[in-house]
Structure formats: C-alpha cells, structure tokens
Amino acid sequence: MSRDMCNTSKSLDSESADISDQEREVTNVIFNSKDEVNSIEDEENLFINDPNNADFDDDLENLNIANFFHKVDSDQIIYQKKKRRLKLIGKYVMGDLLGEGAYGKVKDMLDSETLCRRAVKILKQRKLRRIPNGELNVQREIKLLKKLKHKNLINLVDLLYNHEKEKMYLIMEYCVGSLQGMLDASPDKKFPQYQAHDYFLQLIDGLEYLHSMRVVHKDIKPGNLLLTLEGDLKITDLGVAETIDLFAKDDICYIGQGSPAFQPPEIANGLDCFSGFKVDIWSSGVTLYNITTGLYPFEGGTIFRLFETIGKGDFDIPNDIAEPLRSLLVGMLRKDPEMRFSLRQIRQHAWFISRPPCSSPPVPIPPLRDDALHKMTVFPYLVEHYYHDPNENSSDVQYFTEHELNEMEKSRVDSEYSNGNANQSSSKHNRRRSKKPVSCISVKNFPGCNQS
Amino acid sequence: MQTIYDAKISDYKTISILGHCFDNKAMVHLAKHLPTAELVAIKKFNLDKIREDIELVESEIILTRQLSHPNIIPYITSFVAGPEVCVVSPLMAYGSCRDLLTRHFSEGLLEPAIILILKDVLSALIYIHKKGYIHRAIRASHILVSDTGQICLTGLRYACPIIKNGKWQRAIHSFPNSTEKNLNWLSPELLQQNLQGYSEKSDIYSIGMVICELANGSEPFAGMAKTLMLTEKVRGCTPQLLDRTTVPREETIECGGDTDISANVLDRRFGRDLHELVSLCFHWDVDMRPSASQLLSHSVFKAVKKAPPLPELLKPALPLSDRVGYDTEEMENFDALAKMSQLEIFSCEWDF
Known about the structure:
The complex is a heterodimer. By secondary structure, chain A is of the alpha+beta class. Chain A contains 18 helices and 15 strands. Chain A has helices at residues 9-15, 19-27, 56-61, 65-68, 125-129, 134-147, 179-185, 193-212, 265-268, 276-293, 303-312, 325-332, 343-348, 350-353, 379-387, 402-418, 422-426, 428-434, and strands spanning 78-80, 88-89, 92-100, 104-111, 117-124, 156-162, 167-173, 177-178, 215-216, 225-227, 233-235, 242-243, 252-253, 274-275, 399-401. Chain B has two domains: 9-93 and 318-344, Phosphorylase Kinase, domain 1, CATH 3.30.200.20; 95-313, Transferase(Phosphotransferase) domain 1 (Transferase(Phosphotransferase), domain 1). In chain B, a hairpin with a 5-residue loop joins strand 8 and strand 9. The longest helix of chain B is centred in the middle third of the chain and has 20 residues, at 111-130. Chain B is globular, with a radius of gyration of 20 Å. The interface between A and B is medium-sized, with 25 and 22 residues. Chain B: One of its GO terms (cellular component) is serine/threonine protein kinase complex. Chain B: GO terms for molecular function: ATP binding; protein kinase activity; protein serine/threonine kinase activator activity. Chain B: Residues 26-301 form the Protein kinase domain. Chain B: This is Protein kinase domain-containing protein.
C-alpha cells in the first residue's frame, strides 16, 4: 500500500510548527533530484529505509553517520498533496488523526451502516513489541473493555485485525477531547467549580462501577478522562488496570504503574503491597485538586524528588479553595490509605451532594486543527469518493516543496504575531501534545515534573 | 378509554398478525379484548430478540404513557407475558401511512390527504416539543390512521429529552441508538455529530422528508448508500416533490432510461404552497427553519378546510375493521386467510 506520503497542505500548514512534524519532514528526505517523488506509507512516519524493517535501530550502529546525512536544500524536498482516498476498515470509513499516544494513533471514523461516528485506536504489533509489557497491557485492556460496560467508561464497540499488516483496530465511542486537553487550552489550567463538579460526579460513577467489577484502574488523571459530544465523561486507558481475583479476600495489589504525579504515598514509599481501590481514590483526589486549582498537590523536579514529597504526604491547598471542597480534598489525599475516604464517604460529602453555582462560563473543548466544531473528518473523503471523477486524478496531482511550505508557515506566523495572537501560537506545541488521549507508558507523561 | 383493560394476556384473543416492527424484533397482532369484544392491536416484543434494545422499549412505554394527545398513540396497557413484553393500543384500522403507500398509493397520496395527515402530525409534534422531547423518527411508518381518519404519531422509542439536569438544552448531541432504519429521514445537523448539535428543528427536517415520502410514494434517498445520503444532505441537497414542475419532461423522454417516473407523476401538479412548505422544512439554517407551530399556520392548511374527510381520500384503501367485520365466523375465516396471505401481510410495517 505504498502511497502518497504527505499530508494535505492544510494539515501541514497547521502542524509544521510542531517539533514532531519537523522530525518527520527531515526524515522524509530522500531525493537528490527534483524529478523523484517520494512514496511512503501515509501512516508510517518512518525513515528513509524500508518501513517494514523493524530492526532499523540496530542497523544504525553499523552505519557511517557521515554517509547517512546529506545536506539537502529545502526547495529540493518535494511533497505530493495527499489524495483524499476513501479507506475502509471493515464497514468503517477512516478519517483523520484525533490524537496519538505511545501505543498508537487514534483516528476519526464513521460506521458506514449506522452512520454513527466512532474513534479507532490503531495498534501496531511491531510497535507494541518495542514497548515493555506493550502487548501484554494491550491484551489485558481489550479483555477488560470487552466485559465492562458503563456510561462513564469508554466502550469498545468493535475489534478488527489486519494480520497482514499486524495491526489491531480498537473501535470505540467517539470522544471530542480529554479534560487535560481542555485544561491546557484554558487560561488558568482549571475548571470553574460547577464544571469540575459535573465531571467529578461522573468520574466517581465510573470508578464505582470499575471497583464493583473488581477492577483497579491505577491511572486516573485528567488525560485519561475523555468527553463525548454530549458532555459525558468516559474513563479510558485501562492499559495498567488490574483485576482483583474473584476469590481474593481483599483488594491488595503489588504493582503500581500509573503516572508518577498521581501516585499515592504507599507507592511512592515503595511498599510491597497496598490497597488497590484506595490508589484510585488518591489519584482521583489529585485529579480533583488539579482541575479545581490548576496546580498539583505534589511536585518535584525528578521522579525521585516527586516521590519524596508524595511520600511525606504534606501538601497545601490554595487559600481560594473554601469549604466544603477543601475537606473533600483533604479526605481523599490522606496519607494513610485506611484513613483515606472511601467512595461512599465521597458520595456523602457536602461538596459532592450540592452543585456549586454557575460562576463563569465553562471551559470549552479546544478546537481540533482550527475546527471549533470538531466536524467529521471523514466527510471530505466521502465527497472525493462520490463526486470526484477518477479519470481526472492523474492530471491534478499537486506538488510543493519544503521551501514553499516554510515560506507559507513563516508568513502565517508573521501575520499571527501582527494580529497579537502570539500567545496562541507559542502554546501550540503544548496544546498538540495534550490532544493525545492515549498514553499507556505513563512515565513518559509526567506533568508533575515539568513545573518546578 | 372508559372500558377497563386488564394487564393479563388471557383477556386478549390473538386473531392474526398485522405486521412487524422494530427491525422484525417485534410483532403486531390483531386481537380481541374478550370482556368487551373490542378489537385492539397488541405489539409483542420478544425479550430474547431485543436484548440490549430493551431500554428503548422501556423508555418508549414510559414516555408514551406520560403523553396524552389525540394525535399520539395511547398505550392502553402493557405487561409481560412469558418471554414477551406486550403493549396494547387501540386498533388503527388503516395501518400506517407506509402501508397505505405500499398497498394502494405507490406514487403517493393525494394532496389534500397529505395536508390532512400533516396537520395532525404537526399538532402532535407541537405537543411533543412543548413537553421537551425531540421525536427523531418522524416517518410514514410511524404515522397511523384510524378507521375514522384520525392520525396518531408513534415510534417514540427514538425520542430524546431536551431537558437535562433540569435545564432546557440549546443543543442536543446524542446519536439515537438502533436508528439505521430512520437514517434517511434524519436532518443533516443530527447526522453530522459534531459540537454544533441539533434541536427540535431536526424533527422539522424529517417532516419535510415525510411530505416527500407521502407525495412521491417513497422517501428521498431511498435505496441509496447511507454514506452517499449523508454526503448529499451535508452538501445541501434538498429533496423535492415529484411533479411536472420539478421533473423535466423532455429529459426523461430523451433519456428513456428513467422508467421509474411514470406519466402520472409527470402530469400531476402539487400546489405551490405545498412545494414551499417542503423547502421551508429543509432550510439549511436551523434558525430559519420554522417551528412546528409556525408550519401549522402556513396557508396550505387553510385551503384544506373544505376537503372531504380522510377516509374518502384514501379510497380504494379500506380500514381493517371493514375488511374483517365483527362477527366471529368471519373472524375465524380471517385467521385462515391471514395465514394464506401472510406474504402480503408481512410486507407491511405496523409500527405502534
């Protein structure tokens, strides 16, 4: 399926400020002459070599680097405008990228029979093998998702395999974004209390269901809480979740794999075993703290320092957080798991019971590639498929060079600066990172460490 | 209903099958209520077949029982009998508008009949919207006609509340479950499933579709790939009533291939008002699309006041009660007849 390699001019336009995209562009350099047009699988942002060569990293050692990197002028790098060719996976029509995580990409999708919008997580077995516990975690997640069904838990709608390409397609409910993405795009990195309250109630509903099914999530954080178009919260990413054995007498767990900033003192202090359910309570507490204050209760420059502060269990709550939220945070972030609130205590808490008043407008879902409405990205492919004359294709292939792209980007950035939108473009990098709703290797995602 | 209908299956004698609904997951039976000897319709949902759609059935019964309007089907009673959920409702003797189209009016109903039906459907819709619901499944098979020509709207299992957390929502975003069969009638804003969302005006778009369906004999986009239907709608393609003002005569003669359109369709002419009503319903800008009550004040409904009663306009179709008669002998005959002509009966949709 070697096809045109490039993005449309539009998506390149909006993304080329991104570091990862620049990497892609540089690594796409292969030509020495303008006559050649590059072809790389459109989904593989891989290197010059054959994308099927999985052992590329090993090969590197044997290469002479000086021979490897050529200087190529930017006007010699030629892109071909991607044709919007309709791609079907089973009965599903593939759309554009929604987000990217350590395990794979998430794309927009449309069920061609029910016309219900979906999201698909594409997992490549080749990639999974390179991640510690990758395949195991994915298998466990699929097994869990199949048996779990709740309004506040991401629903696995369908599961498709392509054995030839070693790809797995996890078709899920469509979500417009994560809480993390909304926080990152908001000025104060926090929600008004009534909005946080709405999400927190749904989080507790979902968590209660998970715990009732003897599942410990272990990685509750704003990045793993997605929102549907309707505003329903969906807990996602059960990659490190653990099921308590049916005959176990308590909820003892032995391994903690979640994101460091959200880990409880018992894990930070390296305890051999700990109560699983109380881990989720703690990380829900950190999540609530984070979405209501815009801060983290515990911070540290390194994991070591972070775990040191978490291990002590001392934290401050900003003065503008009044009762009853204050005591709920204190209850959920008690160092001693025994003393920490249970789900029932949370439900009975005053802040949980009464809805805070609507104080300010809610934090909106940030636009995706400048589209505030998050329109179906499948649609242009359908238009192309149904209305484009296939005979015309050969003549109107568009080419443009790296140089031209850079110029376009430059003029775009210039105009943005002159319009006083400098802040927006500088935050672009952060915003894009936050759009990754899938992250299974949580150590890579380490929000608490970046700040001090 | 003055008579008391008990919620027990032994009170009802099933006479024959009227048809199926809900993707063949439910059967509608003609039955006699033994204590009163009155004919009723019983819809039976087999719980083994509906499985996860049980919530739809549940919400339909709850919602229908909460509503009370002359143009919305009342549920007399509902109960569980064996593996089935049974819902008893009055017999709508002409069946659904879809049945009428299939059996007698394959090229569409007469204009006055369309307007009379529409008038009642709009009254029902005003009521439903006022109660804070969006119907989301307005289509001919959900419009039933009684022996007197009374129109009843049904199919409330796809309805969704506009009110959430005690607040009237400006936009709804939920995509209806198991809605495959209704897709052709749904508005572009509902089908697009983005943050814009949709409102009760989505039902008005479906009204436009129903007018076309009743007038043309089949709904626009019928038989088309769902994805193409979506593309057409989102690109702003608006269906039309087929008559001599909209179907160019010369073209069809020259092409010769368009044998679908008969001379009858080419000769007829719907009123300008009705054409206008259809285009109003399909207004792309949701704010410009009229509400149900605005539609009902359209001049098209004034002209129809002098029209003959609906049963006259529906001839040669006859209500079921006339066909069956009330005496038991004939009823038993009918049972046998029904078995023989099951093919025909199965082809119609009786969706109570």
